[in-house]
Amino acid sequence: MPEDRYEPHVSIIIPVKNSARTIGDLLDSLMKLDYDREKLEIVVVDGHSTDGTREIVERYPVRLILEEGRGLNAARNTGVRYSRGEIIAFTDGDCVVPSNWVRAMVENFRDPSVGFVGGLVEGYHKDSFLSIYMDETFFHAVPSFTNRYETTDLRILRFPAGCNMAFRRHALEKIDLFDERIYYGFDDLQPVEELSLRGFRIVLDPRVLVWHKHRTTLWGLLKQHFNYGRGGAFMLIYKRASRIARWLSAYLFSTTILFFLSISLITLGLTLMPRLLKLLIASAASIYMLHTALYARTAIRSKKMRKMFLYPILDVLRGLAFTLGGLFQLGRSLLGRG
Prior knowledge:
With about 350 residues, the protein is α/β, with parallel strands linked by helices. The protein has helices at about 25-30, 55, 70-80, 100-105, 130-135, 170-175, 190-195, 220-240, 245-270, 275-295, 295-300, 305-335, and strands spanning about 10-15, 40-45, 65, 85-90, 95, 115-125, 150, 165-170, 200-210. The protein has 2 domains: about 10-215, Spore Coat Polysaccharide Biosynthesis Protein SpsA, Chain A (Alpha-Beta Complex), CATH 3.90.550.10; about 235-335, no CATH class.
């Protein structure tokens, strides 16, 4: 091994539940990692799967830990406690990693002040319209950056994803691991923000890449974003002072007002003021056409003009699902139903 090669001990933690359809592809890719096997451990934390996930995992030389199924953060914390790596990397059971994934990640930890490294996420299914949309939308649900950033701040569109992130162990322990009260979404952002407040540097590196099996059905996509909204509500409840919570509160407040205002105006137009309804339809059509213009270049470049007309509709549906999910969870919490 070259003298300047940096190879700390790495633990890869994979929280799973009912991932039988996808976990095999991930574990196959992890078996091909270009990294010293003596300095690598893979820990799969299963939250009581009932679809044969555990039986598939047991075919591989990895450590399998059974957990109560209390959410992603609880599974992540369990994995941390049962691992021993200096660097703790996380991915999900519906991902596939390239052979240089770990090596590209750990290179960023040469600087001892770096406490966290995150990378890009791209769709695995290159023949799925919805998967391609998730990579091309202007309203990304996964990281979107083209240059390497080293910072102490989280910014919109420059944020990590739980399926492609790594922590220095002692940094993660400084913040008492992951907050298990937050799940459904944004559970992976909260500890990164806390690390930055503790003075650790955060690196976002586009060379650190995983492929994710995005949702390929509209129902699956909307359900996912509904749950993201629920996760955002937990951030508002438990982490009100965080910058992420402030982003979410501003988003939920503005979209909720817009949603109910639109419903009220449409109802008024249908019942009392037909001219108002025509004005609303004309305004909506104008906004839609402006929205399509955002995707004109994408459609022309790919020679698929339907993207220009369908992507704006998907953006609106995703945003609506997110807002409804946030309102639903806030309502449940206010009523004491969790």
